[in-house]
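Supplementary Methods. Inverse-folding protocol.

Structures were first reduced to a discrete structure-token string of length 560. This string, shown here, constituted the complete conditioning input.
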């Protein structure tokens, strides 16, 4: 399968849903080839499908259809394009088990199966124009269509990862909407102890909120902060238009929202509104907002459904995607929490347009971390002088019209989320491998705590990575060039590589050391760090000499 060219999207849906018309239109918009499996079947059998049905029966047709569908989606069909373009399936094709397996395999490879959801009245009207659809003519046409819909809808939902309503849309309007949706990137997260979920990345991803939540919830708590009011207004509209009863729950911004007092207030609000286990929570905002929303979802009635809609770069690549939820205490950051995975994550990149420059840049700390621990391609992208300039000079007002910047951000988000998904899938509850995601965090969290969270997380992690690199060099795991690379790369992005506070070095180190002993990676009284044994090769370091820790600390500490 590695050399097989996959379709960019596969369209399924009820008869007369507009699969062919919309598929052709979106393929034209994207300058891609379009393939209708019904046309491919007729070429293969050298007769019309109705004629074949009449002569050989439905079972014989479905066997041919299953073979053609597999070839169209997973077959190594020669094409000059990078993909096979857009493929549309016949209305009944997904009902066959063989085809369902093909669609699931395609989605596991990152494919997009679009369930085109048509309004019954509109579909029947279109069907009446086609003499090849006698089933949907006459007075009982709507009843027959609905009976078929009741059979097929659960299957279509189960074998697709994009659901799109077409009611009231012209083919061109539907194609424009579909183009936006299929251009979104999908990272599938699964593993032992994980209910599989998708992270959707791209412009307009928030439109998928109803799909992520499903039909079961009636009430939805929209947990958000004041600075993202514009985005919460949009989410509220999407939810209400889809029939959910929405309860607005405003929390303080940033780390001030991650307290037991805030969580307790949210529990009280859920109780007052009568939330049950069948209802849901949407966390919208930065990493702190999605952390506390997930924690409340995990603890309310021992767990209810939740979806994260991160609106900052940091939240998109880190807090919202890993299934770790939590709040802060006076003793430290994220010391109280749970492992509880979301139903999905919608990283709508249009929300990045409202970010100030410094908030976007701090998110690059977590992006760079993912390069240092696993994906060297991230480091290559960030090391490019033009890319570094685009990111360092980020202006949200220009994002919509700067396709180069938008594609750069989407690529970095997708790659970083894949790094996180790899570690989460292998180690949900942070028993070993997942701890590598904490590269730079041991010192970083200490800095945040000492600075009463006035230092942003990504900035603190950047300093923490330089500290970890210095420690690795002192102990012989990295060379001086590797440490210099850390400093130069982070500096080129506008991230800090040192920390200053009012304490002298001795007092600051004692304070940091005390907090390090409370770190989640610590074992008893033994310090435990994540360092690199070469770039993109993380390892655990247990109980290093305190003198080496002190020396590494002094390399990044500057007294005011």
């Amino acid at each position: 399968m590695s050399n097989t060219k996959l379709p960019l999207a596969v369209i399924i849906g009820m008869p007369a849903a507009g699969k062919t018309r919309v598929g052709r239109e979106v393929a034209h918009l994207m300058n891609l080839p379009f393939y209708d499996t019904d046309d491919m079947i007729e070429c293969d059998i050298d007769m019309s499908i109705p004629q074949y049905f009449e002569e050989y029966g439905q079972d014989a047709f479905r066997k041919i259809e299953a073979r053609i569908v597999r070839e169209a989606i997973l077959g190594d069909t020669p094409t000059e394009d990078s993909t096979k373009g857009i493929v549309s399936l016949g209305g009944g094709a997904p009902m066959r088990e063989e085809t369902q397996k093909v669609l699931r395999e395609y989605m596991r490879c990152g494919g997009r199966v679009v369930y085109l959801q048509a309004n019954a009245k509109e579909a029947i009207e279109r069907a009446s124009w086609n003499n090849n659809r006698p089933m949907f003519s006459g007075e009982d046409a709507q009843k027959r269509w609905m009976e078929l819909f009741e059979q097929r809808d659960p299957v279509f939902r189960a074998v697709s990862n994009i659901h799109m309503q077409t009611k009231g849309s012209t083919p061109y309007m539907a194609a424009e909407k579909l183009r936006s949706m299929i251009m979104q990137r999908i990272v599938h997260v699964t593993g032992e102890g994980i209910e599989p979920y998708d992270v959707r990345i791209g412009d307009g991803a928030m439109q998928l909120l109803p799909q992520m939540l499903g039909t079961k919830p009636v009430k939805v708590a929209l947990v958000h902060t004041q600075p993202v009011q514009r985005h919460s207004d949009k989410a509220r509209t999407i939810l209400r238009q889809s029939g959910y009863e929405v309860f607005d729950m405003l929390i303080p911004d940033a780390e001030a929202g991650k307290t037991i007092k805030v969580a307790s207030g949210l529990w009280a609000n859920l109780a007052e509104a009568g939330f049950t286990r069948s209802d849901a929570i949407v966390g919208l905002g930065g990493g702190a907002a999605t952390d506390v929303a997930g924690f409340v979802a995990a603890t309310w009635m021992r767990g209810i459904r939740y979806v994260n809609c991160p609106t900052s770069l940091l939240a998109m690549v880190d807090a919202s995607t890993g299934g770790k939820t939590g709040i802060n205490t006076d003793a430290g950051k994220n010391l109280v929490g749970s492992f509880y995975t979301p139903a999905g994550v919608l990283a709508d990149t249009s929300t990045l347009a409202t970010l100030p420059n410094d908030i976007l840049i701090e998110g690059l700390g977590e992006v760079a971390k993912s390069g240092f621990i696993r994906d060297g391609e991230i480091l290559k992208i960030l090391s490019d002088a033009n890319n570094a300039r685009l990111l360092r000079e980020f202006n949200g007002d220009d994002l919509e019209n700067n396709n180069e910047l938008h594609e750069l951000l989407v690529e970095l988000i997708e790659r970083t989320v894949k790094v996180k998904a790899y570690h989460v899938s292998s180690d949900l509850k942070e028993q070993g491998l997942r701890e590598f995601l904490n590269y730079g965090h041991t010192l970083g969290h200490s800095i945040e705590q000492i600075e009463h969270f006035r230092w942003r997380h990504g900035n603190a992690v950047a300093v923490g990575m330089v500290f970890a690199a210095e420690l690795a060099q002192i102990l012989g795991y990295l060379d001086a060039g590797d440490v210099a690379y850390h400093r130069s790369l982070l500096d080129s992005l506008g991230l800090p590589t040192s920390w200053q506070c009012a304490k002298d070095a001795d007092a600051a180190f004692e304070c940091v050391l005390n907090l390090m002993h409370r770190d989640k990676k610590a074992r008893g009284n033994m310090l435990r760090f994540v360092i690199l044994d070469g770039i993109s090769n993380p390892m655990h370091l247990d109980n290093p000499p305190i003198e080496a820790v002190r020396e590494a600390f002094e390399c990044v500490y500057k007294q005011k």
